[in-house]
Amino acid sequence: MSKPNQPNTINPPSGNLERKPVRIDPRVPWLADTRRMLSPMSGVTDRPFRDICRPFGVDMGFCEFASASGLMFDSEATWRLVDTDGEEGRVGIQIFGADPEHMATAARLLNKKHMDVLDINFGCPAKKVVKKCGGSALLADLPLLEKIMHAVIDASEAPVTAKIRTGWDEASVNCNEVGLLLQEAGLPWVTIHGRTKAQKYRGEANWDHIADLVETLDIPVIGNGDVVDGESYRRMVQHTRCHGVMIGRGAIGHPWIFEQMRAVDENLPDPVIDFSEMCRVTIQHILGEVALRGPRTGCYVVRKHIAKCFKGYPGAAHLRRRLFNTEDADEMIAILSEAAAAGDPRVGLSAPDSDGEQK
Ligand SMILES: Cc1cc2nc3c(=O)[nH]c(=O)nc-3n(C[C@H](O)[C@H](O)[C@H](O)COP(=O)(O)O)c2cc1C
């Protein structure tokens, strides 16, 4: 059943930063106040990590992308990626694929899941996705992109959104054209990562292209790319007037970024992030991952967050080394508890921190 483009209300600019007034789709009235989103990130934004980010001010989190074929062929591992049962707060599921039938089947199967929106991935640059014409490859095949979009809209009971890149490469930037197609199809918003497929994650995200898309569309645009703290959040919104911002790598090992963004939105001073709290949140993360994946894999998954955590604290490298030297969750928790109690990462270090140590 195709979803008609229902009448929309105009959302006036709100908050401390000036944003472009946009049409809010009545199916998602909460979008009016939704400013801070956690990106879908494969291998990162699992349930324990989404739960950790939420208290810091995330308005909406996304699951890691899930292959439509994996869902259709009932892969247990793929279904685990979309575990949202009983999840508090707003959550989106994202699917990718190049076959409209598979995508529609996946959307129908997902109708039984708890979610606020079903997002389509039109931005993944990974070889294994692009070679099958999924993800960002669809930015170079708009007829297929449209087929997929309509198949998913027809099959999904949840509103359908999409995440795009600026285009295939710098010579074929087409995000405005794609955005208009998506708006015309009735999507309540579009998220754009300001890089081309060819850039992958290199170079800088082009915020001018995001600003162009914001001006082109009447629906909200969620900007994405290179926001790493409150200050860069402010700069992206000022530069693009986007409705909201999605955070990817900036949240790895740093869920406090959402608190920094909230402070910008509420015109409050930049929050001070307490070291002992960092330890406590990391412990909570370890416990969540261990419950989900077992002790060994659970510890490994948290390592990529620890590698980016505690930045700027003298002795951070020492603490990370201690944590990386063990595969035992209880030992990691004991190390973090000790550091939290001391309020200092240098605990257990015999000599003062050497000058050359990486923070
Ligand atoms: C490890 C990793 C996994 C990612 N997985 C996904 C994904 O599953 N779906 C998606 O749309 N984008 C994915 N992305 C892209 C991010 O969502 C985001 O668009 C990109 O990292 C740019 O934003 P950032 O500068 O805030 O990181 C991934 C990025 C990284 C680094």
Layout: helices, strands, pairs:
Blueprint: E1 9-11, E2 22-24, E3 36-38, H1 47-53, E4 60-62, E5 66-67, H2 68-72, H3 76-81, E6 90-96, H4 100-110, E7 117-122, H5 127-130, H6 142-155, E8 160-167, H7 175-184, E9 190-196, H8 207-216, E10 221-224, H9 230-240, E11 244-247, H10 257-265, H11 275-293, H12 295-306, H13 316-324, H14 329-342
Parallel strand pairs: 3-4, 3-11, 4-6, 5-6, 6-7, 7-8, 8-9, 9-10, 10-11
Antiparallel strand pairs: 1-2
Helix pairs in contact: 1-11, 4-6, 7-8, 9-10, 11-12, 11-14
The structure holds flavin mononucleotide (FMN).
Flavin mononucleotide binds at residues 39-44, 64-65, 94, 121, 123-124, 163, 193, 224-227, 247-250.
Summarize this entry quickly.
The chain is an alpha/beta fold and 359 residues long.
Structure description:
The protein has 359 residues and is α/β, with parallel strands linked by helices. The protein has 2 domains: 11-265, TIM Barrel, CATH 3.20.20; 275-342. The chain has 14 helices and 11 strands. The chain has helices at residues 47-53, 68-72, 76-81, 100-110, 127-130, 142-155, 175-184, 207-216, 230-240, 257-265, 275-293, 295-306, 316-324, 329-342; strands at residues 9-11, 22-24, 36-38, 60-62, 66-67, 90-96, 117-122, 160-167, 190-196, 221-224, 244-247. The strands form 2 sheets. An 8-stranded parallel barrel has the order 3-4-6-7-8-9-10-11, surrounded by 6 helices. Strands 1-2 form a two-stranded antiparallel ribbon. Mean pLDDT is 93; it is low at 1-7. The structure holds flavin mononucleotide. Flavin mononucleotide is lined by residues 39-44, 64-65, 94, 121, 123-124, 163, 193, 224-227, 247-250.
